[in-house]
Amino acid sequence: MTSALQQSYGGVDAENESIKRTKILLLGTRRSGKTSILQVLFKDLPPKQTFYLEPTMRVTRHTFDTIIPLEIWDSPGNVTADTLGSPLSHFSTVIFVIDIRDLYQQPVAKLVEFVVAAFQASQNIDFEVFVHKAEKLQEDDKYENFRQIHERVIDRLADEWPEFEQVPLNFYLTSVYDHTLQDAFSRVVHKVIDSLPYLEGLLNIFCSNTSCPKAFLFDIRSKLYVATDASPVDQVTHNLCCDYLQMLNSFGPLYKSNATSNPRTAVFSPTQATSPDESSSTPTISSSSSPPSSPPKPIVFPSAAASLTPSQPGTTLTYHLITPHLALLALLPTTVYEMRRGLVEWNVVWFREGVREIWEVEKERSVADSVIS
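-> structure tokens emitted (373 positions)
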């Protein structure tokens, strides 16, 4: 039975929606860390608690809604292409998890087996390899093992299948104890978002209009960034944004908004301040628990800011809620944020409207595809 890890934007349980979901398959040998990845990303499980997770005994499907609806399949270590229960051609992406301390022979053989089977079923499947549990090794050993795993997979593929160069195979070094996991999974999700160029375009316009050197559109709960602007992603900046978002997730419920009596539309926030422009431009929603005569109450889109470098010129990290599940995190020069805050918030309003239109189009397409299929 499918268990919903997150609700959809409209407050309707994602499990009950009749929509077509993009499928991602999670593979790997026993105790490689597949279930830990899902639990840490989507269930807020503390990394130290992953040690106590039971091994996965059967294929389990998890739904997750971001800008598009996803369905992630967590499989046991002994699964094969024949016992999976669904053709490999139904999956857009296959993530294979390898324990960095493993002896490599068994996981590499299993990975090659699935690569060959999947490519024969469909040439549109993306293969991603997570060399996981990187925190277990020292820095030099970590990168040496990563290099060896990469070479062994490529060599084995070349021996088994001469056409292996046609397979889109990407390798990532990951761990549940830092933000490398969020970064790697974000890059995987980017490849299945057809509207990604439009989201990136909105972020580029926002950065240009506000003198912003870097901006991300984050999924709040999982801390995956579903899009970013055209400038390169700096690991330090990404980690800083993830830590800030984690802090807001931890303390935000203490400041939950009372602007609406509907708990499904209430949003968490470290502040209750909303600019006048934002208040007048935001959509309204009626509470299902209120009498028909009750006036509609506006959805609150809170914001927050933290000064990173107090000295001039200084940098400020800002947070703006875009939808109940997405937030804009942007680095701004402190002088711009303090002296031209109205302009920044005005651009946030238009960015929010653009993102909501893209999400509505994606949702309509998912429903239409479900009816066709």
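Residues 59 and 83 are 10 Å apart (CA to CA).
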